[in-house]
Write a structure and sequence with these properties.
mainly alpha, Arc Repressor Mutant, subunit A, Four Helix Bundle (Hemerythrin (Met), subunit A), 2 domains, 10 helices, 4% strand, globular, GntR family transcriptional regulator, WH_DNA-bd_sf, TF_FadR/GntR_C, DNA-binding, Tscrpt_reg_HTH_GntR
Amino acid sequence: MRLTPPHAPTKSEAAYAALLRAIQTGDLAPGQRVIITEVAEQLGMSLTPVRDALALLAEQGLVVRRPNHMTVISEHTRERSAEVSMLRSVLEPEAAMLAAVRADPDALAAIEAACTAMDRATAGSGTAGAGDANVQFHRAVAAAGGSDLLADFIDRLWKQIPLQGLTLTGRLAQAADEHRVILAAIKDHDGERARQLMAEHVGRAAAAAEAFLDQIRVPPRS
């Protein structure tokens, strides 16, 4: 038996994960300037891994580099949101269909766990962990389809989606219910129904994304 050592993230990967998390949760707000020295100090690392992380985030469109070595968090624009929604509408229904056909017991258990996490998020205040649980579900469905390439594309799209959007638009409980229905179709190995349900789910999410942008939009100064 040959064992593979567990992957230990490099400092660049750790910096990337921390910055991505801050962007998705809104701790780093759209338009906010990123001070590299401050980030490095907070993370307890040198400037090099932070620069590497910002370079990757720039490639993904999550930060923008401006003259004089200034880096700012990208704005949530309607054009960007519409593009993400369009690509999700193409890729995620196919992922759900593949999951219904290919998912093994471990994959089904991962989707089930994501649904349980989402159910817990709807209890009480209905906000704690909601964004993470939502992403967990969609990534689990994508992984269950058995296509690493498709799962990777979907994961890249989810990095563009603000985690707080679900709770701010009041779609938390409805999304949790929709996840359960999609899971049932996958468990029944009903690929066409899983595809249809995911398409409808993503369509509602696209409408919610527009509502989120309306909520965070700052009125122009007179």
